[in-house]
Fold this protein.
Amino acid sequence: MSLVALDKSTLILSLPERLIMPGGFSLRLVVFVFFVLILALEDEQAVAGEEVTDFYNVVAPAGADPWLWTHHGQYYVVVTTGGNVTLARSRSLSTLGAGERKVVWSPSPGTPVAKDLWAPELHRLGEAWYIYVAADDGENANHRMYVLENQADDPFEGKFVFKSQIVDPNNDRWAIDGTVLKVGEALYFVWSGWEGAEDIQQNLYIAPMSNPWTLSGTRVEISRPTHRWETKGGPPAVNEGPQVLVKGSLIHLIYSASGSWTDAYCLGRLTAKIDSDLLSPASWKKHDKPVFASAHGVFGPGHCTFTKSPDGREDWLVYHAARFQGAAWNRLIRAQPFSWDPDGLPRFGSPAPPDQPITIPSGEPPRQRYEAESATLAGEARIVQQPSASRGAKVQLSGSADSSLTIMATAKEAGAYIVSIRFINTSEQHKLATQVLTVNDGAPQRVAYPSAGPADWSNAFVSVSLNVGPNRIRLRQGERAAEIDCIDVTPQE
């Protein structure tokens, strides 16, 4: 019971029990009913949610080198984990962080592919699934590109098995970030590599493929970092993370430039005509400026992927960025729509400001938003003003172990929902903070809040089951300090 409720109860009990009002009702009864109605109205106001069609632009609170492939109405997602290949799937683009996960391949210890697995990509080519991934034996100079194969119709089924190294035998050099370009029936492999055996700079190379696991010709350099915006943070100077984007008669390779460990990391563009000789460097024209760079409090945007909204009507850019200024390789994943100009060139604009919500992808259902400052608070939880919060206020859940925040989320249908929690991790030294989430006093779930800096918001995602009608969703204090802005509840289709 809240302190306000306790004070009202004390007042009621202090009234004379036998004092009768006109109409034969006791004063104590009249006051009791009056306060019950007030408390009911207060509770209703405290838990009321607002239906919204926007979201705050973090689709996963941790991750790098995102890659998406759509199949049977689901987004299949892979990111860099370092030690294995983990596949996730989600029907929602704005809540990728809540996707179901499965480790689909782990390397054998002591092999050339045992460590430092980077930037996996999932492709459906012919009747099989292929995952292209960079790996080494613990020495960065030994990074090479490898391919896994799965013959199942669904990449979550069957088994991914090691197929081979993807290599130009005449130039078996350092290689990462491989992707496949398909033009008609022709396949090309595009990747980032060293020219020689030294880590001086990373160039972009292309080579023809005779099948999804074999190069059929020697590599051809199509880009090297030469512009000032491509060489910051070096050596090495960097061109990496090439991604294919096709529109009409043009092929665009959107790549990452400058050191990935710097806030100067950005996206550049190479363009070629689809009917040109793609193995000729002269066919590829480089735009002389970055096409997507740090802005509006988003730092180091890079290594992107492209996808459609669930209904196929919108084009979306999905990319990683530093969690906070100077965070280097501590990254999260963001997404935003982009458009095209009349000449078939992509218009990415600049990163969406993190503290301003953007419209959800077309085809995603609306969600209910519950403001933390309107929730029921307990323990040492308290409301603090914060201009960057959705309504100008946040709730601090720090201090006593019994501190909590509770909302009553109303579900129109029973089933699976995603709870999106907008948070700030204020822990010292950028350590992980946690809270404990329960639904209707059921089994607790640990919610992890990676540090995004003491003033930078992020989102955490939890999959839950809700009943028809009101559901009690409670967040309790866990490890270290985290602050909550708002909670979105979205049905999982």
In short: The mean pLDDT is 91. The longest helix spans residues 27-47.
